[in-house]
């Protein structure tokens, strides 16, 4: 059985089909929906209006009902574990991939696991897996806070906050070296993506140099991340 890679989706099923075709012989992709249903973002409708339903991993609109941060973290982990436990595959879980808001969460889980291990080498990983690598597609949000370790840290964002992206002026120029991500990651951006400079900083400032790679591919889907 091929090793399994968990995929966080933001209801971009056309992209999902391509990923399955390209990696099906090497990986078994397991798709996870966010715990909360939501309306489709306006920027997605020109291309994806015929798709749905949509789900979210965190608040991004004023219309989303408030939720306690601790409850949000529990619901996210429950969504992950439920999907993973119900998967029929038997291969090892090895990689984590996300698109847009899901990319921010995938990146955050990698970082959260690293911080837990730094505190305790026997620590339990988020959703029970210490991932070997991550693929971050169209992801430019700052890391979320998934535990008390980062709850009050300067460079992390609450799952309950509406805005999920750094504006250029507020993006930190220095991310603490000791807490930068050391897990290998591939950061993928579209050729026509706006604000690429801000997007690239997730890898440049929050990853250890030489551990991450960035590439640009020729898709022209709406820029919502």
Low-confidence stretches: 9-14, 221-225
Gyration radius, in Å: 16 Å
What characterizes the major β-sheet? 6 strands, parallel
Can you count the helices?
5
Tell me the strand order in the biggest sheet: 2-1-5-6-7-8
Strand percentage lies at 15-25%
Distance between the termini: 33 Å
> SS-based structural class?
alpha/beta
Q: What is the helical fraction, as a range of percent?
A: 25-40%
The SSE string, one letter per element, is EHEEHEHEHEEHE
Q: What is the molecular shape?
A: globular
State mean pLDDT (0 to 100 scale): 78
Number of strands: 8
Characterization of this structure:
The chain is α/β, with parallel strands linked by helices and 225 residues long. Helices cover 28% and strands 18% of the residues. It has helices at 13-23, 45-48, 69-86, 101-119, 196-206; strands at 4-8, 28-32, 36-38, 54-56, 93-99, 133-137, 185-190, 212-217. It has a 6-stranded parallel sheet with strand order 2-1-5-6-7-8, sandwiched between helices. It has a two-stranded antiparallel sheet with strand order 3-4. Helix 1 (13-23) links the parallel strand 1 and strand 2. Residues 9-14 and 221-225 have low confidence and may be disordered.
Question: What is the element layout, followed by pairings?
Answer:
Layout: E1 4-8, H1 13-23, E2 28-32, E3 36-38, H2 45-48, E4 54-56, H3 69-86, E5 93-99, H4 101-119, E6 133-137, E7 185-190, H5 196-206, E8 212-217
Parallel strand pairs: 1-2, 1-5, 5-6, 6-7, 7-8
Antiparallel strand pairs: 3-4
């Amino acid at each position: 059985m091929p090793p399994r890679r968990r995929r966080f989706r933001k209801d971009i099923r056309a992209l999902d089909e391509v990923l399955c075709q390209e990696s099906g012989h090497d990986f078994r992709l397991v798709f996870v929906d966010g715990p909360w249903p939501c309306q489709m973002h306006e920027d997605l409708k020109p291309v994806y209006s015929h798709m749905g339903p949509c789900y979210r991993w965190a608040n991004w609109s004023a219309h989303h009902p408030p939720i306690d941060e601790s409850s949000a973290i529990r619901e996210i982990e429950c969504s992950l574990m439920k999907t993973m436990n119900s998967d029929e595959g038997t291969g090892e879980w090895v990689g984590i991939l996300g698109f847009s808001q899901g990319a921010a969460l995938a990146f955050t889980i990698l970082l959260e696991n690293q911080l837990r291990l730094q505190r305790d080498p026997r620590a339990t990983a988020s959703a029970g897996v210490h991932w070997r690598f991550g693929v971050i597609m169209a992801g430019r949000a700052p890391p979320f806070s998934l535990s008390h370790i980062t709850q009050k840290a300067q460079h992390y964002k609450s799952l309950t906050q509406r805005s999920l992206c750094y504006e250029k002026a507020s993006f930190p120029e220095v991310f603490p070296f000791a807490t930068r991500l050391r897990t290998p990651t591939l950061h993928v951006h579209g050729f026509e993506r706006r604000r690429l400079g801000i997007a690239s900083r997730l890898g440049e400032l929050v990853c250890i140099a030489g551990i991450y790679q960035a590439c640009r591919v020729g898709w022209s889907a709406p820029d919502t991340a």
